[in-house]
Structures are given as C-alpha cells and as structure tokens.
Amino acid sequence: MGMLPYSFAVTTQIIFPFFISLALFIFNNIIAWTCYRFKIFNLFLPKDVPLFITPLLLIVEYISYFARIFSLSIRLCANMLSIHILLKILIGFTCLLGAYTIYAHLLYSLILSIFFLDISACILQGYIFVFLSLVYLSNVIVMH
Q1: pLDDT per residue over 116-143, tens digit each?
Q2: Which of 28, 58, 74, 112 would suit a FRET pair with 5, their CA atoms being 20 to 30 Å apart?
Q3: How many domains are there within the chain?
Q4: What distance, in Å, lies between the first and last C-alpha atoms of the chain?
C-alpha cells in the first residue's frame, strides 16, 4: 500500500514492525511453553558443551534469543525506509531536472526502473520477514 501515490507505508515506521516482531516472539514462546514446558530452556544450551564455556554461552544465547525482536523489526524498517527515500529523492531530482533538459525521457525511465526495484524490494523484504519468522518458529517446535 505504501507504493500508491499519496499513501503511507506503515513498515517504514519502526513501531509497526517492532510490534509485529514482538507478537511473533510472544507467539513462539507460547507455542514452546505449551509443547515443552521447562524443556524450552534447552534452547539456550546445546548438547555436549564443555562445562567451562556454559556461563558465557548461556549469556550469548539469551541475548541472541531476545535480539530476534529487534533484528526483524530494524531490518524491515531500514530496508523499506531506505528504498522509499531513494525513490523520493530521484523523483524530486527528475522533476527538477526534467523540466530543463531534452533527456527527460531517460530520467523518467530511470524512475520507472527504481520504482520496479522498490516493488521487488518490498516483496523480498516481506518474504525475508516471513522466512525468518518461520525459522524462529521451527527452532522452537523442533528442539535442537
């Protein structure tokens, strides 16, 4: 919807992808708790880990487990925002330069190609978001 003229892309605001990521994180934890109860803590400590590495590994795994929320939301927001900003800058530049040059058709074709790049980036970011969410869900369902 953010690609339509005079519309707003909600994924370019950090709060919207953050709450989607948080909802997926809570959903994953609910699924894990209903399936495994206290065995969910095995996610933080893989099998056959030497005893002297265990405290450091628990801290790293704990941080990485909760960083999923931020990694999903920041990745989606930053990629969407950057490609939309690039497109708006190029449109503004082309409108300004297109009125004063005879090569306006080349500039308009550049905008059209960037527009298709933007659409493909939106589709790709949606795919990556869903794919990573399913990977995180599979980590919870199929314990390692």
Answers
A1: 888 888 889 889 989 998 988 888 888 7
A2: 74
A3: 1
A4: 39
Residue 45 inside a domain? The answer is: yes
- What is the model's pTM? 0.76
Contacts of 81 (CB under 8 A, 6+ apart): 12
Euclidean distance between CA atoms 44 and 22, whole angstroms: 19
Distance CA 14, CA 109 (A): 31
Q: E-strand spans in the chain?
A: none
The answer to whether residue 1 sits within a structural domain is: no
Is 21:73 a contact under the CB 8 Å cutoff?
Answer: yes
Q: What is the pLDDT of residues 48-76, one digit of tens each?
A: 888 888 889 889 988 988 898 898 888 88
Determine, yes or no, domain membership for 2. Answer: no
Single-letter amino acid, residue 79? N
Written as one string, the DSSP assignment of 73-108 is: HHHHHHHHHHHHHHHHHHHHHHHHHHTS-TTHHHHH
**Domain span holding position 24:** 10-141
Task: Tell me the HSE value of 121 on the side-chain side, using a 13 A CA sphere.
Answer: 23
